[in-house]
Design brief:
Two copies of one chain form a homodimer. Chain A is an alpha+beta fold. In chain A, 49% of the residues lie in helices and 23% in strands. Chain A has a domain of 118 residues: Jelly Rolls. Chain B binds a DNA duplex (30 and 30 nucleotides) through helix 9. Chains A, B: Keywords: Kinase, Transferase.
Chain lengths: 190, 190
DNA sequence: CAGCAAAAAGGACAAATGTCCTCGAATTTA
DNA sequence: TAAATTCGAGGACATTTGTCCTTTTTGCTG
């Protein structure tokens, strides 16, 4: 739980006692490689902090292709947010790229925390704001860079993902084809 | 203020009395065409609801080009969120595309509202969650569609913006060049 | 360890998009 | 109103990226 405590402390001021008080609401859970944390069509009742491992979020587009929209690594949060927030069926699946350890909270328990304390209201709001800013960055950057620029950025910012995820998934995450990614990789290695 | 009240009611349950109670914290303001609501380098002390008009958000990339990251139309919120939330200098400018009427709240007043009531904590969190979901949609969609698909989507979802904004700004919003946009428009009209 | 299947690399060509430029129309300013 | 400026359309060519395919490599399973 230590890493999760540190994560929360990076968001809001939080004493160890306060953390201890609320920690019973959180459960730890392990996902084996390729198993799912959320699935398309099923309502997502949990949000998670990733203690160890890597998760891939994807949806299915009109051409029935998997499109990877996010890689979430250690010390980050993951959830099918839309589904979790609205408690409606998920449009996203979240799958473990490797064996992964999670710290989770259920929707119901989170609502209890929100009612119990302004602290949690604050954490909830700060996290939403934070996720928004990350997504904003991702959006504006990826839409205005060339395939090579996007790959170079990923190499810089998410080197661990490059090593663990498949070429297919990396390409769809960057919005390019496998063929283009292959060309870029060749160009870089020489 | 009526449209703003309706907007809030679409987010959280809110009685007319509650709205009246807090409405003194909000100011109305008019921006003339081409004037700024936020500017790069200046800390943004206000967030706004757009009563009427259209705003364009942009940043300057490494090649010193303006990149339009967002068009915000009537009945939506706008802010240089990162700057507003963190109270650090803005990386974005927000400019009026046409004469625009805003309902604004200052950072300080919003903090007072957050302290005063769980209702506003809730509104703040819900809005952040909402903004996140909008951005997520924008990101995943724009990064995996062709130039033409992106333009067609914009034509469908933001027809008013197409009519009001310049070709340059629309192109940079879609992450394509003017030349490509010109080609797409020609192709569509015949 | 051999054989199979899945994943990645890459060839050949096609299509999409970008770059650089010119021209005419629209808009602003003196 | 005339001149100046900005803006949008589009020609010609270069570059990037995609499509379809085959070959090579990797990893798994019996």
């Amino acid at each position: 739980m230590e890493s999760f405590k540190l994560f929360l402390k990076s968001i809001v001021p939080l004493s160890d006692q306060e953390f201890e008080k609320y920690s019973p609401y959180f459960k730890t859970r392990t996902l084996t490689r390729n198993s799912y944390f959320a699935e398309i069509g099923k309502t997502s009742h949990e949000a998670a902090f990733i203690k160890k491992g890597l998760l891939r979020t994807y949806y299915i587009n009109e051409k029935s292709e998997e499109v990877t929209s996010c890689f979430c690594a250690e010390n980050n949060l993951t959830a099918s947010y839309k589904s979790f927030i609205s408690q409606l069926p998920s449009e996203l699946s979240i799958q473990a790229v490797e064996d992964t350890e999670l710290i989770t909270i259920s929707y119901n328990d989170l609502q209890i925390l929100y009612q119990k304390s302004a602290l949690w209201q604050n954490i909830g709001r700060s996290i939403a704001e934070r996720q928004y800013m990350v997504m904003e960055q991702y959006a504006s950057v990826l839409c205005n860079e060339s395939a090579k620029e996007k790959y170079m950025r990923m190499l810089e910012e998410q080197p661990a993902v490059i090593n663990k995820a498949s070429v297919n998934d990396i390409a769809s995450y960057l919005g390019i084809t496998r063929r283009t990614l292959s060309r870029i990789r060749k160009e870089i290695t020489q």
